[in-house]
Design brief:
heterodimer; A: 5-stranded mixed β-sheet; 9 strands; about 25% helix; about 25% strand; elongated; B: about 65% helix; disordered N terminus
Amino acid sequence: MVLAVGLAVSSTQRPPGPGRAAALASTDPADGAALVGAPSGVELSFTAVPDPDLSHISVRDGSGTALDAGRPRLVQPERLRQPIHGTAAPPDGPVDMTVSYHVIFTDGRELAGTLHFSVGMRSAAGPGAAREPSTGDATTAADAAKADAAGNAEVAAGPAHQHGVDPVSAALLAIDGVVALAVVVLLLLRPPPQPSGPPS
Amino acid sequence: MSALGATSPRWRGIATINHRLHRQALTVFLFIVLAHWAEHLAQAYQVWVLDWPRPAARGALGQFFPWLSTSEWLHYWYALVMIVGLVLLRPGFVGRARVWWTVALLIQFWHHIEHLLLLIQAQTQVFFLGGTVPTSVAQTVFPRVELHLFYNSIVFIPMMIAVYLHQRPNERELRATSCSCIHRARTGRAASAPSAPAA
């Protein structure tokens, strides 16, 4: 009965709708910035409150080396900071840095995107894009970019940030259901033990 | 009192819930376990049937109290409640049921240790096992697993087996136990009637 009530409540509820769409308000460094020296961290400001435990930000240099140090944290109610390891511009030229982010907000909405900046006085590659996750197929280039950004950031996140169905949990849930059902059926089919002598 | 699997209760409260009130105490404990599972099943329904994004799938109660589904402290306290229940109700089990109940208890004890490791890492921001986020021992083997759901799943199975064997004991176990679960079946009297401890 508890499960039935729970399912009924779920069916009448709706996941948090867009309302005011969450968006990237500003970044530091700015997208496309050309810096002389490497920053100690990357800060992203949004128009909604991100959940740092469910969000991840990946920072990689031109060779693909991950530079993020630790988890992102809130420095202001709507601003996340991702510390990064220092990197020096190589003598033969500046380094292009790619920041991929996948942010989950406290109301359940999510946002993914990328931005670029360079360290060493050369302008970075083209502007990044922040998009709301689409509900349809990822067939457009914009959706592919969002998925790529989410994937890059998710690789860096580890087990703390998961999407989709976890096959291990799904299998265990199914096994538990089968076991519970089997116990109920066996209890109904097998009679309780009968006393072998006079009641005490 | 039969020596088979039974203990001499040290405290009157523990003695009561493992004899006269064992059935009621077990019912309350199992209600908590099953209500917790109902929330996880509601979450699964929201994700797999209603196609909600996972952060929004907070179960039934979690829709009104979001912190219920995201609080690591709450998961830790639930693990603790489970351990306390498994320990307090263990003396009432005998024979095979007691073996399976003990298996559930041992797994749950390790589950509690895993959550303690996560809590310590989350509070100190010092991450173990080479991780960059709080990482449990199980997550070094199953990187994608949801720790809370994993351990509750593998504790649930031996617990259910123990409950079944406790309700359907063999002759030897039937003679050894004196809790209200079996006593009711043995004498046919109502569960609320006081029962004398077995000799």
